[in-house]
Write a structure and sequence with these properties.
This protein is α/β, with parallel strands linked by helices. 58% of the residues lie in helices and 17% in strands.
């Protein structure tokens, strides 16, 4: 009896120990803890792309926590994650849903940040979704239509180029243009060779003329300054004269002077016309008399009253 009791006790203890070891292994593998050395961080994503409860949370690439809960919040997703208490998140911390391996597993990668101000765990950490293979394939599907249009346009362009290149008249024109260009280049080359000395002489003369002009300006700087000042004064005087003439014209137009009154006074103009007509008659009479027998003067002169 005693031997059987000892055997049962040994079997029981072994079973309990094995159960404890199993629980410890599962807790280590799944990041399950009984002690309170973890805290909850809420993260908000537009999409989590297949993230599941129990998936890993890595801090700078090191496995540190796990996803505790996933809640759909309108067009967003709230993810609750367990993070070890010794991990301090900063205010500029960032979270990102990434592909864990090529088999499609997901994880959350958290960058703790570098700010001096710590992150308030009562707030929600904003995160985003990293582009993975399915996302890349989706992007390729979105640009498929654009790729078709580009290929179609490229094919049309190649066909037009082929048609242009097969046009003998166009090819002949191109050959003729190239030949003319070669002829022109050769002519210019021959011209420069034949007139190299003259061109060098022209350039030399230009340099000499520039030097002489510079020397002349430096030697006659004072005279040129006086000339420029006199020219400035002359221009100012011309402006004054122009202003005065403009003022005179305005006065004349507005009949504010004798010339304006004479030009724009109808009575004076009529008198002037009558006077001119009389002078014209007298001129005709004098002309006739000069051509006949001289000028006849019929005047009464009174010397005494």
């Amino acid at each position: 009896m005693k031997e059987n009791r000892k055997t049962n006790v040994k079997v029981g203890l072994t079973t309990i120990l094995a159960f404890i070891i199993l629980i410890w292994i599962l807790g280590w593998a799944k990041r399950i803890t009984i002690a309170g050395d973890y805290y909850v961080v809420k993260m908000k994503f537009n999409s989590v792309s297949g993230l599941e409860i129990g998936d890993h949370i890595t801090i700078n690439g090191v496995k540190m926590g796990k996803v505790k809960n996933i809640i759909l919040d309108g067009n967003s997703v709230i993810v609750e994650g367990l993070i070890p208490r010794f991990v301090t998140l900063k205010k500029d911390a960032k979270a990102k849903v990434e592909m864990m391996d090529l088999m499609g597993g997901k994880k959350i990668e958290i960058k703790p940040g570098e700010s001096d101000e710590p992150f308030n765990i009562n707030n929600i950490l904003t995160g985003n979704l990293s582009t993975d293979i399915p996302g890349a394939l989706s992007m390729v599907g979105n640009v498929e239509q654009d790729l078709k249009l580009i290929i179609t346009d490229t094919r049309i362009l190649i066909e037009k180029l082929n048609n242009q290149l097969s046009d003998q008249e166009l090819i002949s024109s191109l050959k003729s243009s190239i030949k003319n260009l070669e002829t022109t280049s050769k002519y210019l080359n021959d011209f420069f060779k034949q007139n190299q000395n003259d061109l060098n002489s022209i350039v030399k003369n230009i340099f000499e003329l520039t030097d002489r002009a510079e020397n002349y300006i430096s030697k006659n700087a004072d005279t040129l300054t006086v000339f420029l000042n006199e020219s400035k004064n002359l221009i100012q005087n011309l402006n004054d004269i122009s202003t005065q003439i403009k003022f005179l014209i305005e006065q004349t137009t507005n009949q504010e002077n004798n010339i304006g009154r004479l030009l724009y006074d109808k009575e004076s103009i009529e008198k002037l016309k009558v006077s001119i007509e009389r002078i014209d008659v007298i001129t005709k009479i004098l002309t006739e008399q000069l051509g006949d027998k001289g000028i006849k003067v019929d005047a009464k002169i009174r010397l005494f009253k």
